[in-house]
Amino acid sequence: MFGVSKPVIGMVHLKPLPGSPNFGGSFRDVLRFAVEDAEALVSGGVDGLMVENYWDTPYSVYVGPETVAAMSVVAARIVDEFGVPVGVNVLRNDAVAALAVASASGAKFIRVNVFGGVYVSMEGLLLGNARKILEYRGRLGLDDVQIWADLRVKHAWPLTDIALTDEAKDLYERCNVDALVITGRRTGLPPNPQDLQNVRQAVPDAKIIIGSGLTLSNVQNLLSLADGAI
């Protein structure tokens, strides 16, 4: 998809969108800021971009139509202008909304925080529903849109005491994800290198993406254990 062996994906963190408690009142300002952010990232050499409603705090587990509409406009503009693969993540865990945005914008992949299993978060229970998401992707004719699923997503905790490697196997072998995203426990924290090694051994054919915490000081070590980074 990206034309390189280990892509680096730049995040376009959207300002608060219409419907968010902190929305500033001008969607044009949101769009302008996002385009400027994307331009800076692409000029800096990233291999792809991901659009995310990062500043829509406090998050809702599932979003309203106003969020889907706004993110579709932004994602379509970025897809049209920058010539790199674009992904979508709709926080907190709305994969159906992300696929709807991809359908309208031409985005090539989505990120799903909880694709299978049950996690506890500040927003409440995050329920995986792989079957529903895959069926919806098929109905939209988006079978070529990849699904990147978080493994032990940050800012959330699993309800069951399942081993990391068992969860990785279930996501990859039983839920049909295209890539596993591994993060630190909070935004900006890197994943444990041992976790990357363990998951690689458990599912050697899976694509492993670093989800947070990549820096100049750890990039060589972390990317030697993964297939790309956000």
Features:
alpha/beta, 230 residues, 7 helices, globular, 11 strands, eight-stranded parallel beta sheet
Structural class, from helix and strand content? Answer: alpha/beta
Instruction: Please provide the count of β strands.
Output: 11
Strand content: 15-25%
What sort of overall outline do the alpha carbons produce when their principal axes are compared? globular
Q: Identify low-pLDDT runs.
A: none
The major pleated sheet works out as: 8 strands, parallel
SSE pattern: EHEHEHEEEHEEHEHEHE
What gap, in angstroms, lies between the N and C termini? 15 Å
Mean pLDDT: 97
Secondary structure tally, helices:
7
Describe what this molecule looks like in 3D.
This protein is α/β, with parallel strands linked by helices. It contains seven helices and eleven strands. It has an eight-stranded parallel sheet. A three-stranded antiparallel sheet has the order 6-5-8, with no helix packed on it. Helix 1 runs parallel beside helix 2, helix 2 (65-82) crosses helix 3 (95-105) and helix 5 crosses helix 6. The longest helix is centred in the first third of the chain and has 18 residues, at 65-82. It is globular. The model has no long low-confidence stretch (mean pLDDT 97).
